[in-house]
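Shape matters. Shown next:

___
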Amino acid sequence: MTGKERILTALKVEQPDRVPLYIHGINEAPIIGIGRHLTDGLPQSTQFHEMNDAEKMKLVDTLFLIHENFGVDGFTSFEIGHEIEIDEKHVQDDWGIVYRRSPHGLPVAKGHPVKVKQDLDQFQAPEPKQEHLLLLELARDRFGGKKALFWLMRGAFVRSWRLMGMENLMIQLYTDPEFVQRVAALVTDYSLKQLDMLANAGLDVLVVEDDIANTHAPLISPDHFKQHIHPFNRQLVDRAHDLGLKVVRHSDGNLWSLLDLLVATGYDGLNPLEPQAGMTLKKVKQHWGDKICLLGNIDCMELLPDGTTEQVEAAVQEAIEDAGAGGGYILCSSNSLHPAVNPENCIAMFEATKKYGAYSVGQKELPRGKPRGINEG
């Protein structure tokens, strides 16, 4: 099977030739750290905005090399070129949202242009642009249909709170829910337009990236979620399916109280199954593993930064044993490969997936062993 075939088979909750391997997201530092095993001449800086054009292209090429050399089955793309620099610490996107750069990962939204209804009345939403799809187009041309192409699209909750501010959104849910609905409709309209462009560009899998929970519970009540967020994300799911795409729902945190609704929505996959939030892989597999593909759960908070390669291998083996039987599991980390992960542990995760993830013809269960946990010798 090609990587694309492997991913799409798993997303149908069917069994491919082996458990697919995927990188949901990866920052510059681990690209460089892993890339040192594959190529020379890598950038000295670990901040993309500090690199010159040649260094940026070298970084992208190295990311492609990582997927090719370690047999990663799917490639993640996202918008690029939609931000302008305000100063060395801040950027502004084409929605007018201001972000503060962070050395620890993605920039953090700090300036919110739509705080009250009057702002919305005067607000002009941007139109999606083909040039912002450059990374997807480069990956499509590089991999030639052999790897599944994923796209990270912010959902209604994240796009709305970035426009409005998180605290303000929470207040408006109670004081002016109609305002919240208008903002959600605005951002969803943009996403639907972009979705058509993505399908035409060769996309295989849409990731509705809409973090809605912390490690204890959802950030808003289930009723508010059902009324003000879910209907808009449902439009993305339905439209993507109409276009022949698969759809993965991404949210950090404890999703147990929302899982029935998410599964019923028709998502093909659920990611990233954060272990620190109680998203125990074996338990989720037992409850919903016949209805939705599971992606993730390899701990990126403690194990990948601070564990040993042997412990990473054991965790991969355990995850495959817990969720791989019969298909419907794609192995990846419990969130992005961020600047604190150990590149050697990332490589150990890649290699262990191929070591333990192969299915035999007619096999419905994978071989079992006794893995060692992070605290074991």
